[in-house]
Design goal:
Layout: H1 19-26, H2 50-74, E1 77-84, E2 87-94, H3 99-127, H4 136-169, H5 179-182, H6 184-216
Antiparallel strand pairs: 1-2
Helix pairs in contact: 2-3, 2-6, 3-4, 4-6
Length: 218
């Protein structure tokens, strides 16, 4: 209006440098480490997933429980005296004198070897940044192995429990004593072995469920 042209200075936005611009102005980039687990089961990107960690943890627990059950049973032996109808009898107890206990030792040994093999294979693949379960065919094989061992553990624990219960209660309508009073150490070892056998059964069942989760996600 008065002959002078007034210009409005352009509005300058506030200085906001993104992290990428700061890196460009500095002339060098700084590596940033990323930590965390993916939620999925099995990864093909070299990142440890939660499913991989769960699978290897279950393998380790299965192996530890199976070894504990087997070692407790093979160390179950004792020599003691018991009174039967007024007579003193010397009792020799050993796990190999019972077919049920031998069956439990065989099943737990197989389960420990299977778990150790799967743990070594899975750990080596994870260190090479490969998926723990590489294909559906192997997943089905692992699922079948977990199912078989879970049922085998259940049957072995049930068979050994029947023999142990007979040692504690005797035979109905007879005057047989409670042999576990005289063979307390033997019965304690057997009880620990049976407890860890059933615990191994639960762990193998959980591994089978984890296998199903992997298969359903593929």
């Amino acid at each position: 209006m008065n002959g002078h042209e007034t210009t409005t200075p352009p509005s300058t936005p506030p200085m906001q440098l993104t992290e990428e611009k700061v890196v460009a102005e500095n002339g060098h980039s700084q590596p940033r480490a990323r930590f965390g687990f993916n939620v999925g089961v099995g990864s093909k990107t070299g990142v440890w997933t939660r499913g991989d960690v769960v699978l290897l943890t279950l393998r380790l627990l299965c192996m530890a429980a199976s070894v504990t059950a087997m070692s407790s049973m093979v160390t179950a032996r004792q020599v003691s005296n018991a009174s039967l109808f007024g007579f003193q009898l010397q009792l020799h107890s050993k796990w190999s004198l019972s077919y049920a206990f031998e069956y439990l030792v065989g099943v737990t040994a197989a389960a420990a070897g299977y778990s150790l093999l799967q743990l070594l294979i899975g750990t080596s693949r994870l260190l090479r940044k490969s998926p723990v379960i590489p294909s559906r065919n192997q997943a089905w094989l692992i699922f079948a192995g977990d199912q078989i061992l879970a049922y085998a553990m259940m049957s072995a624990g049930s068979a050994a429990s029947g023999v142990t219960n007979l040692n504690r209660t005797g035979i109905r309508h007879t005057a047989l004593p409670n042999f576990c009073k005289s063979l307390d150490s033997f019965c304690d070892h057997v009880a620990v072995s049976i407890a860890f056998t059933f615990f191994s059964c639960v762990l193998f069942a959980a591994s089978a469920v984890q296998d199903v989760i992997w298969l359903s996600s593929r």
